[in-house]
Design goal:
It comes from Devosia riboflavina. This protein is an alpha/beta fold. The chain has 24 helices and 29 strands. Helix 7 links the parallel strand 9 (about 190) and strand 10 (about 225-230). Helix 5 runs parallel beside helix 6. The model has no long low-confidence stretch (mean pLDDT about 95).
C-alpha cells in the first residue's frame, strides 16, 4: 500500500465545446458551487469544434473566485514554453494563485502537423517536454539573477528575462503512461496526471514505483509528487455513489492518489461528486490515515531542506505562525528576502498578523542562535531590516489604519502600514501627517526613529506626534507605553525604538492638511560653494509653513552638477505661496522651475510592488546646524570627484527644535538640516569614504536612518552624552540579553550603572 499523505482534492474535466461555450463556463461555475477544488479542460488546438483551452482558462478564471484551473493537459508541441510560462504566471497573478499547469508531450500528430507543429517520435517528444520544463521553471524563477539559458535540441532560451513570479508555487503535472515519461515525472514534475481508462501496462503500482525510483535517484522525496487521476463512473444512483467512493478511497490509500477529477458535462453528476462523493472520501481517508499514523502535510524538497541555515530550529516554529513563515527554497522567498536597496538572504522570515503572533515570534527568536531583524516597510536606507542567515520578523501584515477621534486627529496605525496609505486614509477627514518624502516607507521604522518629512518645520518630526505605542518586549510581555504607562520606555521608543521591542500599534495625533503647493526648482550647481549656503539661509528665513529638501547629483556627459529643491508649502493659496517661493529664485543660476497645487496624498502616493534590492549602497549621514562655506566646499568636492550618486539636504529646524533635547531619545533639537550622501559600487564608495571624514568633522550629530556604517562611534553621534547613558540603562531593564541587536544596537549598561 502507498499513501503519500497529500491533502485530498476533487475536480472536474469539462469538454470545451465551442457550440456550447456558455454551458462550458457554467459547468466550471457549478464546479465551484458544488464545493470542488479544480476545473480542468482538454487542449486540442487542432479541433475546430473546441474552444481554445488557454482563452477558456482565462475567461473561467474571471468568472470564478475560488477553484484552481488547469489544462488536462496542455498540448506542448503547439505552445511555446517561454510564452506559456509567462501566460501561466500572469493568469496565476490575476486569479490570485489559482493556476496550475498540466502538460502533455503531444499526441494526434496529424492534427499537430496541420497546425504547423513538428511531428516527433515518442522519445523525441519526451526530450522536448523535459527541455520545456527547464525553460518554464527558469522563467518562473524570478529571484535568480541572469537570464534563462537552455540549449536544448527542441526548445532553447538564450538569456530570456525571468519573471513574473507566479502568485503561488504553480505545479507542473504531466499526463503520462509510459516508463520514460514516468521517469521524467520523478525527476522534474510535481504531479502525475493519467486517465484511469488508459492505465494498462505498466500498472498503477508499477508506474508509482518507476516515478518513485526516478525521484530518489534525482535526490527528491517521492512525496513531493502529487498523484492525480481522471476517474470514470456513473453517478445516477446511490449505488453508483457508493461504488465510486469505494474506488477513490482505495486509490488514495493503496496507490497514493490525492486529486480525483471527474470527466463529466452533466450538472447532476458534478453536484453529486461535490456534495456526496468528495466529503465521504475525505472522511474515510482521514479516519484510515489517523489509524495508520500516516504522515500528512506539505513536503519540503531535498533542495529546500539543504538551503536551511544553521542556528535555526525550523521544526519548532510556533503553530500560530504556521503558513506565515518563509524560508530559503520557498516559492516566494525572493519577495521577502530583500529590502528596498539591500539584498538579504535570511534563514527564516516570520510574518505575524496579530500582536499575539508577534509575541510568539519573539519568544521563538529568543531561543535561536542567529541575529533577529525587524521589518515594517523594508524601505530603510540603512538596510537593518534584513540579514544573512538570521531571522526577519516582518510586521507588514499589521497594517490597519483607524481614525479614533476626528476632532483631535488621533489615529491608530499598525507598524506595517505605509505612509502613503496613511495619507490616503486621513485625507477624507482633512488630516495628514508628515512622514518623509516617499509613500512606500513603513510606519514602524520611521515613527520610532525620527521622521523628517515635508511638514517638519511646521509640525516637527513624525515621532513628535506619537501619543502611545503597544510593544512586545524581549521577554515576550506585552505593554502599552505612553506618558503615564512605562513612560521611560515611551521616551526611548521615540528615537531608539528598534532597540527595545517590536511595536505592534501606534497612536499618533494628525493635524489639518489640505492641498499644498509643491514646487521644484532646479539649479546649476557649478558654484556649489555659493549656492548651497544661500539655499540654506533662504530655508531658515522662510516661514515655517515652508519645508524644502535639496537633492544634488554630479555632472554627467560633460554637464556640471545640478541640484533640485523640492519645496512644500502648507497652503493652496498662490498669493500666500508666491512670496515664499520668490527668494528661492535668486539662490543660484536657475535651470528650471515649476509649481503645482496638489493634494498631499499625491506627493506621497504609495506604489509598493515589492522589494528586490541589489545591494551595493554605502550611505553616509549627519546633521547640520550651520551650512558653512567650508562644509559647502566639502560637499562640492564630493560631487566633483564622482564620490556620490546622490546627496541630499533635508530641512529640520522650526517645530523640530521646539521640543526639548531630553524629551525624546531623538535628542537633536538645534540643528537645521539633515545631510546624507550615497554611493553605489566599491570604487565610488572608496571615493566617498576618502572625502567624508573632512565633512563629518563639520557635522553635528547623526540621524541613523540614512547611515549604513556600523562603527560604534556612530552610536555616540546619534545619541549624544546623557541620552546614550539613559538608553543604556533602559536597555539593561528592557532587553538585557540584547535580543534586539541588529538596528544600531545599544549595549546595556552594567548592573552598577543601570542601578
Amino acid at each position: 500500500m502507498t499513501d503519500y499523505g497529500h491533502e485530498l482534492k476533487f475536480g472536474t474535466f469539462i469538454t470545451p465545446s465551442a457550440q456550447q461555450a456558455d454551458d462550458v463556463v457554467a459547468l466550471a461555475q457549478l464546479t465551484e458551487a458544488a464545493g470542488l477544488d479544480l476545473a480542468t479542460f482538454q487542449d486540442h488546438p487542432y479541433q475546430s469544434n473546441f474552444l481554445d483551452a488557454w482563452t477558456l482558462l482565462s475567461f473561467v478564471a474571471a468568472k470564478t473566485e475560488r477553484i484552481s484551473l488547469a489544462g488536462n493537459v496542455l498540448n506542448l508541441p503547439l505552445r511555446q514554453p517561454a510564452v506559456l510560462a509567462r501566460a501561466v504566471a500572469s493568469l496565476d497573478l490575476l486569479s490570485h494563485g489559482r493556476a496550475e499547469l498540466g502538460l502533455g508531450a503531444g499526441a494526434f500528430w496529424d492534427g499537430i502537423k496541420g497546425m504547423g507543429g513538428e511531428e516527433l517520435t515518442p522519445g523525441q517528444a519526451v526530450d522536448a517536454l523535459e527541455e520545456a520544463i527547464d525553460v518554464i521553471r527558469g522563467i518562473w524563477d524570478a529571484g535568480k539573477s541572469g537570464g534563462v539559458r537552455v540549449d536544448g535540441k527542441y526548445h532553447k532560451a538564450a538569456g530570456a528575462r525571468r519573471g513574473p513570479l507566479p502568485a503561488h508555487g504553480v505545479s507542473i503535472w504531466l499526463g503520462a503512461l509510459k516508463p520514460r515519461m514516468l521517469k521524467l515525472i520523478g525527476r522534474k514534475a510535481d504531479g502525475w496526471l493519467p486517465s484511469m481508462s488508459y492505465i494498462k501496462s505498466p500498472t498503477i503500482a508499477e508506474s508509482n514505483a518507476i516515478i518513485d525510483a526516478a525521484a530518489v535517484e534525482a535526490g527528491r522525496d517521492p512525496r513531493e509528487i502529487r498523484r492525480l487521476i481522471n476517474v470514470g463512473g456513473r453517478l445516477a444512483t446511490p449505488e453508483d455513489v457508493e461504488a465510486l467512493v469505494e474506488q477513490l478511497v482505495g486509490l488514495a490509500l493503496e496507490h497514493g492518489f490525492s486529486t480525483f477529477i471527474l470527466p463529466s458535462d452533466a450538472p447532476g453528476a458534478i453536484e453529486t461528486f461535490g456534495k456526496d462523493v468528495a466529503p465521504e472520501v475525505r472522511a474515510q481517508v482521514e479516519k484510515a490515515r489517523k489509524a495508520a499514523g500516516t504522515q500528512t502535510g506539505p513536503v519540503r524538497s531535498a533542495q529546500a531542506l539543504a538551503a536551511r541555515r544553521a542556528g535555526i530550529d525550523y521544526d519548532s516554529v510556533p503553530a500560530a505562525l504556521a503558513g506565515r513563515v518563509i524560508e530559503p527554497g520557498d516559492h516566494d522567498f525572493s519577495k521577502h528576502r530583500s529590502t528596498y536597496i539591500h539584498k538579504g538572504n535570511p534563514g527564516l522570515v516570520m510574518r505575524p498578523r496579530t500582536a499575539e503572533e508577534v509575541r510568539e515570534a519573539i519568544t521563538y527568536a529568543a531561543r535561536q542562535d542567529v541575529p533577529l531583524a525587524v521589518r515594517s516597510g523594508g524601505h530603510g536606507i540603512s538596510g537593518r531590516s534584513t540579514n544573512d542567515g538570521g531571522l526577519v520578523l516582518d510586521v507588514g501584515q499589521l497594517n490597519s489604519i483607524r481614525l479614533m477621534d476626528e476632532k483631535t486627529g488621533l489615529f491608530r496605525v499598525g507598524p506595517g502600514a505605509r505612509w502613503g496609505e496613511v495619507a490616503t486614509a486621513l485625507a477624507p477627514h482633512g488630516l495628514g501627517m508628515s512622514s518623509g518624502d516617499y509613500g512606500d516607507v513603513g510606519v514602524g521604522g520611521l515613527a520610532t526613529a525620527g521622521g523628517i518629512g515635508y511638514f517638519a518645520r511646521k509640525h516637527g518630526l513624525t515621532l513628535d506626534h506619537v501619543q502611545a505605542a503597544e510593544v512586545v518586549l524581549a521577554d515576550g510581555s506585552f505593554v502599552r507605553a505612553d506618558r503615564e504607562n512605562h513612560a521611560d520606555l515611551f521616551w526611548a521608543l521615540r528615537g531608539a525604538g528598534g532597540n527595545f521591542g517590536v511595536v505592534t500599534a501606534l497612536e499618533l495625533d494628525a493635524y489639518p492638511v489640505g492641498n499644498v503647493v509643491f514646487a521644484q526648482l532646479t539649479y546649476d550647481l557649478s558654484d556649489a560653494e555659493s549656492v548651497l549656503p544661500r539655499w540654506a539661509e533662504t530655508v531658515i528665513a522662510a516661514p515655517r509653513e515652508l519645508t524644502s529638501f535639496l537633492t544634488m547629483v554630479p555632472g554627467r556627459s560633460g554637464s556640471g552638477p545640478i541640484a533640485q529643491a523640492s519645496v512644500v508649502i502648507m497652503s493652496d493659496d498662490p498669493s500666500v505661496a508666491e512670496p515664499m517661493l520668490q527668494p528661492f529664485l535668486s539662490v543660484g543660476p536657475m535651470l528650471g522651475s515649476q509649481a503645482y497645487i496638489i493634494p498631499y496624498t499625491a506627493l506621497v502616493a504609495s506604489h509598493f510592488s515589492g522589494h528586490d534590492g541589489a545591494g551595493g549602497l554605502v550611505s553616509r549621514a549627519g546633521l547640520v546646524t550651520d551650512l558653512t562655506p567650508t562644509l559647502a566646499e566639502g560637499m562640492a568636492e564630493l560631487l566633483a570627484a564622482g564620490a556620490t550618486n546622490m546627496m541630499q539636504l533635508r530641512a529640520v529646524g522650526g517645530a523640530v527644535n521646539d521640543v526639548g533635547a531630553d524629551e525624546t531619545a531623538y535628542a537633536h533639537r538645534h540643528q537645521n538640516f539633515s545631510l546624507n550622501a550615497g554611493a553605489y559600487g566599491d570604487a565610488m564608495a572608496r571615493r566617498l569614504d576618502a572625502i567624508w571624514p573632512s565633512i563629518s568633522a563639520q557635522l553635528d550629530g547623526l540621524y541613523l536612518n540614512f547611515e549604513t556604517g556600523t562603527e560604534p562611534h556612530l552610536l555616540e553621534k546619534a545619541f549624544p552624552g546623557k541620552t546614550l547613558a539613559r538608553l543604556r540603562r533602559l536597555k539593561a531593564k528592557y532587553d538585557p540579553g540584547g535580543l534586539f541587536n541588529s538596528n544600531f544596537p545599544i549595549p546595556p549598561a552594567s548592573e552598577e550603572a543601570a542601578a
